Amino acid sequence: MAIAVVMLVDDEVPFVETMTKRLTKRNLTILTAFSGAEALEKLNRQRNVDVVVLDVKMPGMDGIETLREIKRAHPLVEVVMLTGHATVETAIEGMKLGAFDYLMKPCEVEQLMAKVEEAKRKKGAQEQKILDARLKEIIGRVGG
Amino acid sequence: MAPEVSTKNRLANGGYYRSLTRNMILTVIVISLSPLILLSSLIGYQFHTSYQNKVLDHLQEIVRKHKQNIDSFLNERLANVAMLVRVHSLKKLSSEAFLKEALSLFREEYGGVFVDLGLVDERGVQVAYAGPFELKRANYADSEWFKKAFQSPFYISDVFMGLRGLPHFIITVKPEGARWLLRASIDFVAFNSLVEATQLGKTGSAFIVNRNGDFQTRPRFATAFPRELLTGFLSKKTGTQEVAVFENDDPSGRTFLSLMTPLKNGQWILVYLQDKTDAFADLYRARRLGIIIFLLGGLGIVGTSVFLSRRMVQRIARADREKEMMNEQVIEAGKLASVGELAAGIAHEINNPMAIMVEEAGWIEDLLQEEEFKEGGNLDEFKRAVKQIKTQGKRCKEITHKLLSFARKTDPAIKVVQLNDLVEEIVALCEQRAKYSSIHINMNLMPSLPTIHASPSEMQQVLLNLINNAVDAMEKSGGSIDITTRLDGSYVVLDVADTGPGIPQANLARIFDPFFTTKAVGKGTGLGLSICYGIIHKMGGEISVNSAVGIGAVFHIRIPRPKIDGKKGTSRS
Questions:
Q1: Does domain B325-404 bear CATH number 2.60.120?
Q2: What CATH number should be reported for the domain whose range is A5-143?
Q3: Most confident of A6-10, B119-123, B416-420
């Protein structure tokens, strides 16, 4: 079983392709999107995505905007930002908007893996909490 | 003149400045000299005329007085003789003893004026004589004076030598209807002294001439009396009481002033001659002095105007040069800014392909793990090459990221900033990294530090750069960083002190230069401190560094407090 379902969002096609190969090899299930709009659309169809790796700088809908939309529609999906710029501000802004973390491009695949795993764990924990809460609710109802 | 076109041209050729200097000098000279000239010529003219008139009046007065003296002298002598004739009979007058007595009486009374007395009959023979010469029985029948004297009751002759061979003149009195006359000769020397008293200045001389221009007294100087002057005077028919004034040039080029007045009913003329320069010596001296003062003053004005104009134009030229330099600097700065933007663009464009390349190398690395390559003889070489590609890719990343942050437009919006808050924020950011290098960050923040006007993101960048530098400096050795905020007059001061190895003296001067770095190749871009420098200077502050090798380095940042605090509080906790 795959470690996580990850969606790569970047307008640079060769980058996405290579990353896909490398991450697949590391036992991740990879979905790809080449623009923010495409990513949102795929997320709506594909409900099992755990982590989105999102490039900040993209033509059309940019990373921050996409992030905002993702967090609005899918609050549990974790987002790791990839910045080409060394813009601390953008990264900070992204994290304020709910991104899990950020990485500078080009990044070590191991780093990315680590972040993805962390994000996945966080998401898992979060989901677990929700599950527990639900269970509690149900049990409570039964008990009550 | 379009000002922008000309600045370069002005500097290119000195013509503009030369004509500017010339115009300034001329303006100053004309403005300051023209009232001086007008005033001095007006006053000079007035003074000249009035003084000349005064001198002439004075001379005329003297001459008039003298004329009166001489006239009265002659009249009195004539009256003396006439008295003798009227009072005494012919018989008594014919007695030489009586004449002698009368003569001695006269001489006693009037000094040596009377020389002799004599009675001359109608034939011209001197029948009785008293005096120092042997002139008894002398015959005057052919003498000029006798002919004239016999026609009139009174007669005063011109000066002549006569029988005695000495200059004298004669006064004769002939009673009504008498066949004889009494003759008295007047000593020339005594008479002369009367006229000679009128000697003024160095060249002033008075003398008497007759209508023919013959001297009747001895002039002070042996000057030839110009005849045309006399004819001029005679033709004017001057009244007997008037004094006529003439000016004439003598052959040697000097101008003489001559005053003339008739004597003895116009038979004689009293002449006063004086060199004009002598007569008006005081005036000319004053005028000379005035001219000298004027010339010196003018020279002073000209000198001053030349000096001042030159200096002024030099200053203008210097200001122009500075302006030109400033323009060049502005252009240079603009160029730098656009180069920066270009660099940022390029860096960004390179970053993405670089990321792909690194990823591809990573992919190769991944593939090399597969079984089928494990046996390949060059596996290690492949691995090494791929690793190298990745290392170099990382290096490129560093560079592009630094370049981007250098050229990036940070949010320059000026806000009211509490420096203490910023420091705390950044220190919190850096503390983790510092801890790994066993560096302790101490904050010594002034509790009620006034706020400053600055861009928060820029100030953050400055703080981060300084703290990162300090951490870098002590990465291996460890140590402490002391961050202090304080107030110094109208400046808010931030000190960042480390206990690192310090900065060598040789590097201190260059530390804020762009691209100056002491870090290993690939580790630093040399832009951090120059970015700080640019930011601090932009907000009117100062950044400086003190350092001692082996002890550490202290960076001081001085940021001016806002001049008008307005409604915003000066302190915020």
A1: no
A2: 3.40.50.2300
A3: A6-10
Nearest in space to B539 (alpha carbons), one of B418, B449, B413, B447 = B413
- CA of B346 to nearest chain A CA: how many angstroms apart? 12
pLDDT score for B4: 47
- Asked if residues B461 and B535 have their Cβ atoms less than 8 Å apart, the reply is yes
Question: Would you call B401 and A22 a contact, using CB atoms and an 8 Å cutoff?
Answer: no
> How far lies A127's CA from each of A72, A124, A140, in Å?
17, 5, 19
Q: Identity (one letter) of the amino acid at B148?
A: K
Does the predicted TM-score (pTM) go above 0.90?
A: no
Burial of A13 (0-12, 13-18, 19+ CB in 10 A): exposed
Q: What is the pLDDT of residues B61-96, one digit of tens each?
A: 888 888 888 888 888 888 888 888 888 888 888 888
What is the distance in angstroms between the CA of the first residue and the CA of the last residue of chain A?
A: 39
Q: In what order do the strands lie in the sheet with B114-121?
A: B126-130, B114-121, B180-187, B168-173, B154-156
Nearest to B128 by CA among B173, B97, B84: B97
Q: Across chain B, what does the average pLDDT equal?
A: 82
Pick the CATH number of B88-192 from 3.40.190.10, 3.30.70.100, 3.30.450.20, 3.40.50.150: 3.30.450.20
Is residue B401 less than 8 Å (CB to CB) from chain A? Answer: yes
Tell me the average pLDDT of chain A.
87
Confidence band for B569, pLDDT divided at 50, 70 and 90: very low
**Rg, Å, chain A Cα set:** 16
ipTM over 0.85: no
Q: In what order do the strands lie in the sheet with A78-83?
A: A29-33, A5-9, A51-55, A78-83, A101-104
Of A15, A85, A109, the CB nearest to B404: A85
Q: Determine contact, residues B270/B260, Cβ cutoff 8 Å.
A: yes
Nearest CA in chain A to B409: A87
Cβ contact B363–A15 (<8 Å): no
> For the domain bounded by B411-560, which CATH number is listed?
3.30.565.10
- Domain spans in chain A, listed from the N-terminal domain onward: 5-143
- Predicted confidence band at B2 (pLDDT cuts at 50, 70, 90)? very low
User: How many secondary structure helices (H) and strands (E) does chain B include?
Assistant: 15, 16
What is the reported pLDDT for A20? 92
Cβ density class B476-508: b for 16+ within 10 Å, e for less: eeebbbbbbbeeeeebbbbbbbbbbbbbeeeee
pLDDT tier, B573 (very low <50, low <70, confident <90, very high otherwise): very low
Domain spans of chain B?
A: 88-192, 198-279, 325-404, 411-560
Residue B206 binned pLDDT confidence (cut-offs 50, 70, 90): confident
Q: What is the third-level CATH fold of B198-279?
A: Beta-Lactamase (3.30.450)
- The minimum CA-CA distance between A132 and chain B, rounded to whole Å, is 35
Contact assessment for residue B195 and residue B219, using Cβ atoms and an 8 Å cutoff: no
Rounded to whole angstroms, the Cα distance separating B413 from B425 reads 19
Torsion of CA B228, B229, B231, B233, to 10 degrees: 160
Cis amide linkage into residue A14, ω under 30° from 0: no
Res. B521 pLDDT band, cuts 50 70 90: low
Do the domains B88-192 and B325-404 sit in the same CATH topology, yes or no? no
DSSP state of B266: G
